[in-house]
Amino acid sequence: GQQRQRAQEALLANEQRFRALVxxxxxxIAILDADMANPPFLYVSPAAxxxxxxxxxxxxxxxxLDLVHASDVPRAHTLFYEAxxxxxxxxxxxxxxRHGDGQWRSCEVIARDRRNEPGVQxxxxxxxxxxxxxxxxxxxxxxxxxxxxTGLPNRMxxxxxxxxAIVRGRRQNTAVGVLFVDMDNFKGINDSxxxxxxxxxxxxxxxxxxxxxxxxxxxxxxxxxxxxxxxEDLQAAEDAVPVATRILEQLSLSIPLLGHxxxxxxSIGIAVSTDGSEEPESLMRDADTAMYQAKTxxxxxxxxxxPTMNDKAETRxxxxxxxxDPTFLQQITN
Length: 334
Prior knowledge:
By secondary structure, this protein is α+β, with helices and mostly antiparallel strands. About 45% of the residues lie in helices and about 25% in strands. It has helices at about 1-25, 50, 55-60, 75-85, 130-145, 155-170, 185-195, 195-210, 240-250, 280-295, 310-320, 325-334, and strands at about 30, 40-45, 90-100, 105-115, 120-130, 175-185, 220-225, 225-235, 255, 260-265, 265-275, 300-305. It has a 5-stranded antiparallel beta sheet with strand order 2-1-5-4-3. The chain is elongated.
């Protein structure tokens, strides 16, 4: 008799420990009735109040799927189906579950079929809130692909979008254009008015580029005072010209900078892929080459890329490498 009493006491102690663990766990532990189409809660742990803003008493008897985002309901059904198909395994998926305040929380939900266990007789689910982790991951991803000053896509994201656009253009038989925008007077503004004014100037330039572009165009900041614009669905290279003209107009309007009024002038190079054969890098390089030509032509203008410009670019490079810089000669002879 004594042995049986000890066994019962041990069982009771175990049960109390288990109840304490469930009651104090930050994850929600719940038992659902095995009615797959509409599984009501048979039991909900106290953590539901913190995670979903609902008391266990309020939730008991209501359907779990009422908490699930409409787009995620099929995934929840799959989760239950898989749990019941494989009795020995924990099955997991991510679901958006509604909080009492109307916001959606991303949760990892683990399900296990315990219908055959006398004390349970249902599907046990554990819900772990991953909203903050997801938010942090999205933040990190955003930072990796966007410029911190203007919030625009950076070089990496622009190249990515350009690759996809070239493939789309090839499929739809349309041209893809890249505009390379380089500010003519940024260094002067930075040197005379300081970095704070320089940063503000770049932010305003980014806004003006958005005003001048078409809906659906992608604007990126490559770094410094260099911006690029991706244009899709063009029929010919000339289709990019109206946008280049609008950019020049927008930038010529006065820009208020910490008590000063300045105007932004830019040189724009345009390169267009008409047959989708170009690599993103070469299209960007062509637009860059055309931008240098626009600067040579007298700044504050645009220039369409032409293959003969590559010869000039190579000549320019040769001249630069074969002739020493005269100021450098003066420095070393003085």
